[in-house]
Write a structure and sequence with these properties.
This protein is of the alpha/beta class. It is built from 16 helices and 10 strands. The strands form 3 sheets. It has a 6-stranded mixed β-sheet, with helices on both faces. It has a two-stranded antiparallel ribbon with strand order 1-2. Strands 9-10 form a two-stranded antiparallel ribbon. Helix 11 packs across helix 16 and helix 13 packs antiparallel against helix 16.
Length: 342
């Protein structure tokens, strides 16, 4: 192995070492050795660690002599929106126009990679586009994926190998992109229990027992950071989920039938399968709000890293549907209970 695990910003000035994901890293190694065709779209719950995986992937690809550009249009830090490997960093300074929109960001990334080949800096190129669908809107998602496929099939330069990876937490992405041959969609889930414990142990100071954290978050790194920021108070996280997704007003406007379905889904998400013909819009809304995930088959070739268990009702995981995390489920349960109490 010619690469090391990266240090990542966690929260409040705390940096942690990239943890676990051994199988995912082997898959990235395979992409580095073979290239990708068509575009690889990695879809998973919000905060499950896709950005962290991409940051680690940059190091792996660099070790295989790739020129790499990592694009993240929704990054808070402007300097994180477009990051290049050191060998091509000087090419970024040659871009005279402001980077601007997410579409322009992608165009700049492609331009830099093509320049790297034309100038003989590298023969292998990689573009990692992080949560771009959220930035450009779903109406443009298909257009972007086709553009990235054209980069693979009909490039303006002759390359030795190319890797194009795109990540998304947008629940609607799967049906929009999956209906074309332009991309292979792979699912990514929250971290395994063993990997999550490795991350948990890097957090300093007193904290709740790991079993409690696991039951609250189901292995989601973003929620672990939120709990750390909120002094390990899961009720505060639940309240924020309710507020930011406006769950109280949404559940208030539901029909009695929809509320009844949702109450059952809180106990077992697979009950949503029975309700699909009755209230398809309810399921669409749960996916749109990043509360519920429609599960992929557990076949390994459809997943980045290890798929979740076939069923784990304690964590809100069913065979066909799953709550993104137990705290997401708890937020919906509390919003529903508020309506009943009122």
């Amino acid at each position: 192995m010619k690469w090391s695990r990266v240090k990542l910003a966690f929260t409040k000035g705390l940096r942690v070492r990239f943890s676990g994901r051994t199988k995912a890293l082997k898959q990235i190694e395979e992409y580095a050795m073979k290239g990708t065709y068509p575009v690889i779209v990695i879809y998973g719950p919000e905060g499950c660690g896709k950005t962290a995986l991409f940051k680690q992937a940059v190091e792996i690809l660099k070790s295989h002599d790739y020129a790499v550009v990592h694009v993240n249009p929704i990054a808070v830090d402007e300097h994180e929106k477009l990051v290049t490997s050191e060998d091509i960093k000087q090419l970024l300074s040659e871009i005279s126009e402001p980077i601007g929109s997410a579409i322009r960001l992608i165009g700049t990334a492609i331009e830099i990679l093509y320049k790297a080949i034309r100038r003989g800096i590298r023969k292998k190129i990689a573009l990692l586009a992080d949560d771009v669908f959220q930035a450009i809107g779903l109406d443009q998602a298909e257009v972007l994926v086709k553009r990235l496929l054209n980069m693979i099939e009909y490039p303006a330069v002759s390359y030795e190998k190319i890797v194009v990876l795109v990540s998304s937490s947008e629940g609607v992405t799967r049906s929009r992109i999956g209906r074309h041959r332009w991309a292979n969609m792979l699912a990514m889930w929250n971290m395994s229990r063993e990997d999550y414990k490795e991350l948990y142990e890097q957090i300093p100071g007193p904290k709740p027992p790991f079993n409690n954290i696991w039951k609250w978050t189901g292995g989601n790194p973003w929620l672990l950071a939120m709990l750390y920021e909120y002094d390990w108070n899961p009720r505060r996280v639940v309240d924020q989920l309710i507020e930011f997704r406006r769950l109280t007003s949404w559940t208030t406007l539901m029909s009695e039938e929809e509320r009844e379905i949702l109450f059952k889904a809180v106990e077992d998400p697979d009950t949503l399968l029975d309700a699909l013909r009755k209230t398809p819009t309810l399921i669409d809304k749960l996916i749109e709000l990043n509360l519920v995930v429609e599960m992929f088959s557990r076949k390994d070739f459809l997943w980045i890293d290890t798929p979740p268990p076939e069923k784990d009702l304690e964590l809100g995981i069913g065979r066909f549907y799953a709550w993104q995390t137990p705290l997401h489920r708890e937020a919906v349960k509390k919003a529903l209970s508020t309506i009943i109490d009122d």
